[in-house]
Amino acid sequence: MTALHTRAENACELCGATDDLAPFAVAPHTGDDVEHNVLACGTCRGQLAEGAELDGKHWFCLQGAIWSAVPAVQVVSWRLLHRLRDEGWAQELMAQAYLEEDVLAWAREGLPVAGEAAAVTVDSNGAVLAAGDDVTLIKDLDVKGTTFVAKRGTLVKGIRLTDDPGHVEGRVNGVQLVLKTAFLKRAG
Ligand SMILES: [Zn+2]
Questions:
Q1: Single pTM value for the model
Q2: Ligand 1 centroid to 108 CA: how many Å?
Q3: What residues does each domain of the chain span?
Q4: How far apart are the C-alpha atoms of 156 and 158, rounded to whole Å?
Q5: How many CB atoms are located within 10 Å of the residue 26 CB?
Q6: CA-CA 20 to 30 A from 24: which of 34, 95, 155, 178?
């Protein structure tokens, strides 16, 4: 029995099945180190193959897997949820899921380049923005529903990314706002 089998308790780390188990290396990693592999059953591995059609019902198992303590399992689950995001339950689960920043970075790294590349959030200069970054406003912004103007040069600390690469969330004067990335510059 390998260290991976031990960690997985001899069951698929995604769906819990016990047949046809084998390691699945989580891209961009290719080796067989335990940290970067998940133990997956034949069904799961079949669907993890590039371009494979996903069976939404099978992946209800992600409601458990996304809460795994193992980063590699979190990454695979998050990527699958991302592919299933047209389904309400998957979207909801993604919103609830909490991934440490470095795990989230790993998860995003594996997204297919074509099509999904547009989902990278960048500032007005094309610098990539990540959750937790600080940004400054490059123009005065009217805040909808208030008379308050967020001034050019205002520092917004610890932004959050949204599903829309054109917008991030941040707190200005204690108010949580959705900000257009075209009007932001990464600070520091
Ligand atoms: Zn499985």
A1: 0.61
A2: 22
A3: 3-118, 120-186
A4: 7
A5: 23
A6: 95
Q: Is 76 exposed, middle or buried (0-12, 13-18, 19+ CB in 10 A)?
A: buried
Q: Report the C-alpha gap between 153 and 51 in whole angstroms.
A: 45
Q: How many CA atoms lie within 13 A of 46 on its CB side?
A: 10
Give the Å distance between the CA of 163 and the centre of ligand 1: 28
C-alpha R_g of the chain = 20
Neighbouring residues of 109: CB distance < 8 A, sequence distance ≥ 6 = 27, 28
Q: Which residue has the tokens 């034949």?
A: 42
Distance 16 CA to ligand 1 centre (A): 6
> Does the domain spanning 120-186 belong to CATH 2.30.30.40?
yes
Amino acid at 66: I
